[in-house]
Amino acid sequence: MGLFRTAVRREPRWAELSSGVSSSNVQGFPTRVFLNETAFASTLYLERRRAERAGKRYVLMLVDVKDVFSSEEAPTAREKITQILSEITRETDIIGWYLQDSLIGVIGTEIGSASSQEIRQVVTEKFRDAFSRALGPRKASLIFVSFHFFPEEHESGNSGNSANITLYPDLHRKAPSHRLALGIKRMMDIFGSACALILLSPAFALIALAIKLTSSGPVLFRQERIGQPGKKFRLLKFRSMRTNCDSKIHEEYVKRFISGQVASGKNDGEGQVFKLQGDPRITRVGAFLRKTSLDELPQFWNVLTGSMSLVGPRPPLEYEFKAYNVWHRRRVLEIKPGITGLWQVEGRSRTQFDDMVRLDLRYAREWTIWLDLKILLQTPAAVISGVGAH
Question: In CATH, what is the architecture of 2-170?
Answer without folding.
Answer: 2-Layer Sandwich (3.30)
